[in-house]
Design a protein that fits this description.
Layout (H helix, E strand, L loop, with lengths): L2 E19 L2 E18 L3 E5 L6 H9 L6 E6 L8 H5 L2 E5 L11 H11 L4 H14 L15 H13 L5 E5 L7 H18 L2 E5 L3 H7 L2 E6 L2 E7 L2 H5 L3 E8 L13 E6 L2 E7 L5 H10 L2 E7 L3 H11 L11
The protein binds adenosine-5'-triphosphate.
Adenosine-5'-triphosphate (ATP) binds next to strand 1, strand 2 and helix 1.
Length: about 325
Amino acid sequence: MDAFIELDRVEKVFDVRKKTGFLKRELRQVRAVDAISFTVPRGEMVGYIGPNGAGKSTTIKMLTGILTPSGGRLRVAGIDPSRDRTRLAHRIGVVFGQRTTLWWDLPLIDSYRLMHRMYRIPDARYRENLDRLVELLELGELLDVPVRQLSLGQRMRGDIAAALLHDPEVLYLDEPTIGLDVVSKGRVRDFLRELNTERGTTVLLTTHDLQDIEQLCSRVMVIDHGHLVYDGALAGLHEAGESERTLVVDLEREFPPIEAGPSARVVKVDGPRQWLAFPASESAAPLVARIAAEYPLVDLSVREPDIEAVIARMYVERQTVVPDARSS
Ligand SMILES: Nc1ncnc2c1ncn2[C@@H]1O[C@H](COP(=O)(O)OP(=O)(O)OP(=O)(O)O)[C@@H](O)[C@H]1O
């Protein structure tokens, strides 16, 4: 498959000077990205997640050419970003949720006009893209409003349109739904899905909102302390994180914690209700049969693992699991 983004043992080391006393400074190195390798084929929508300080923004900055890697090889559309940043700029779009690329005091449409000139977008293409983005992102009524007067959700949609006016082949999104309400999040996600299917735009999505990933990405990469610790399907994370399902049982009356065998354990008791954790990879049937045979069972339900808990456990365990490594 056509690899659009390629990283081969890419590293970024920052030199940090730390004050250790009067006139004394110690030089320390922070390895923000440590020998990361992956490829993303054209048209894929990939989640890039990790805890604070994991190295996500540093990776995106290297992909856009803002930062130069300290080691390894990196290519986007065959271009070395830090060497040919201007040429690459015409082929990529970037949205940083926490700050805007729009001109704060100007009406939204003026920012778009400026981008039209900056990117030298042919007139017909600019008009066609603008019309389409205004329609899809419902920006019609906002075009004459100064950016500073827009709500966060409106501003975000405005920023996404700005990043796409020049028809980039890849879109980097850093926290595109941060601070948005449920309706605005839904709109942004619908739009991204449509963009990806209609135009085949490659999307790399960084977010702390795992619902963004669940709803948009078939593949997810997890980075922790600069290392890629998982690369594969979202569903596979459950296995990698050794996740557990929960069996909730209602008994006729209060009992001491159920003795349910080696692979299940009671995690909570509240009156006649008990919660038992068991490996997500195992069937609940033998456990249910055993409890039903030995206790007066009234009702039961099985709860699926919470993806946030699975990922949190992965961060803690720092396992290196790459079941579906596309890195070559
Ligand atoms: N310019 C810099 N100089 C020194 N250290 C830096 C610099 N930029 C980032 N770092 C360090 O590199 C590490 C990775 O930071 P990065 O911003 O890439 O993380 P992140 O995954 O994007 O985190 P967050 O989710 O908090 O945005 C952190 O330890 C950070 O302090």
